[in-house]
Amino acid sequence: MKSIGVFDSGVGGLTVAKELIRQMPHENIVYFGDTARVPYGIKSRETVIRFSIENILFLLKQDVKLICVACNTASSFALPVIKNHFRVPIVGVITPGVREAVYASRNKRIGVIGTKGTIKSLTYEKEIKQLDAQVKVTAVACPLFVPFVEEGWLEGEVVESVARNYLQPLKNAGVDTVILGCTHYPLLKPVIQEVLGKQVTLIDSAKQVAFEVKKILASEDMLNQPSKNKSISAGKHKFYVSDNPEWFSGLAERFMGRPLKDVRKTENV
Q: Average per-residue pLDDT in the chain?
């Protein structure tokens, strides 16, 4: 049975993998975290494209039927290029979140938070404007959020202080909807929500990405459904990294809500 391939620069994409597993429990998942070359957010466009192509080639060797680019920077820089290079369906994390944000916004003021690379690419602004030219977009880079999550600093005075500092431009702009434009950020959702207020809708792209993947697989008749095949059981999940599987395993429980026992290091990327 073919798998869904997922790649990210490190551990953040596990928020997407977790949602894929939740929405499609019978699907096999192969996850690759490029931990040897993380972070992508400070790399050049050309480098991110090269890394993304190498990651896809690795996943194709694992016999995948669809690839999910669970990295906002790779989705920003590489998606338009890699979609033209491969026949397998490829889904990024940006378009599904943008669609949901434009739909959810009542006052046509949308905020985007992400890494420096994602914000600098202007990809979110371009996609939002394509859907609705009337929307006013306020985009802010929040570079300390990723190390906070990876160090387990999900609450407390320091995190709140930094969040208030980063998010003030969004409050000043009067946004009513904010896209969490990095796969680490859902773990900081309670703090972000508290700073922005309950009236602001937070868009977690992982849920929309998993829904999009499910829709594509269903339309191509590639979805594993027990009703069609009684032998289909719970999906199997494999996790690969390019370096430091112990570090990845330690963080994975924070993202997945359960420990990952068998994380394999690959030399092929």
A: 92
